[in-house]
Amino acid sequence: MFFDPTYLFCVALPAFLLMGATSWYVKAAYKKWSQVRALSGLTGAQAAQKLISTVSYTSDAGAGLRDVRIVGIGGNLTDHYDPRDKTLHLSPGVASVPSVAALAIAAHELGHAMQDSEGYLPMRVRSALVPAVNIGSNLGWILIIAGLIFNWTGLAWAGVIAFSAGALFALATLPVEFNASARAKVMLAESGIVASEEEQRGVNNVLNAAALTYVAGLITAVLQLLYYVMLVSGMGGRRRD
Ligand SMILES: [Zn+2]
């Protein structure tokens, strides 16, 4: 099963190439727009702070942002929002650099903070799936292998269902990420932090490139799931022969 050529050529290799290509594209977009100075002169952290004070006092939906803190985190492209302590973690290249890429990423993470404060449904669904993904990714294997060993189709299908949590999580990730980017674009434009057409293009480029990685993640998860479906359906076929 581990050395199945079907798995290698239909799942592992396409996933590897797809993830590699999208990750390269994100890094290239990030690198390009990191070198373009923001006309506002604001760093990612300053822009996020400014957006927090603007949005949180001008809209009901933004009121929950008042508690959001901004802290630094090491590494590159490690930026994220942690809903547990309502903290924006910004990497040095975003937090302290006044670039178009930094604005885009800081505003995107703030978009997640807004989703959190509003109780945005896809984000809640996604968080609710986390335990299922953790259990399913381990249990799925055990059930499928046990099903194959004991030739028990029902057990193997239970494994496939356990595994499907991963694909559902990847699916739920799309609206969460696309919506955070959409919010980022609106916030940056409405606040006037991004004013020129070139900056707008840069923000779109960085955020759309990042969105592609989540699409690639979903494709990978679906390919993997389809492989298990194929494996387990083949098992039923063998038994009928
Ligand atoms: Zn995101």
Low-confidence stretches: none
Largest beta-sheet details: 3 strands, mixed
Instruction: Give the termini separation.
Output: 20 Å
- The fraction of residues assigned to DSSP E strands is under 5%
**Quick check: average pLDDT?**
92
Structural class: mainly alpha
Tally of helical runs: 7
Radius of gyration: 21 Å
Residue share in helix: over 70%
Find the count of extended strands (DSSP E, 2+ residues): 3
Ligand inventory: zinc ion
The largest sheet has its strands arranged as 1-3-2
Q: Note the overall shape.
A: elongated
Total domain units: 1
Secondary-structure element order, as H and E? HHEEEHHHHH
Describe, in short, the structure shown:
By secondary structure, the chain is mostly helical.
Describe this structure in words.
There is one protein chain. By secondary structure, the protein is mainly alpha-helical. It has one domain. Helices cover 74% and strands 5% of the residues. The chain has seven helices and three strands; from the N terminus they run ααβββααααα. It has a three-stranded mixed β-sheet. β2 and β3 form a beta hairpin. α6 packs antiparallel against α7. The radius of gyration is 21 Å and the shape is elongated. It binds zinc ion (ZN).
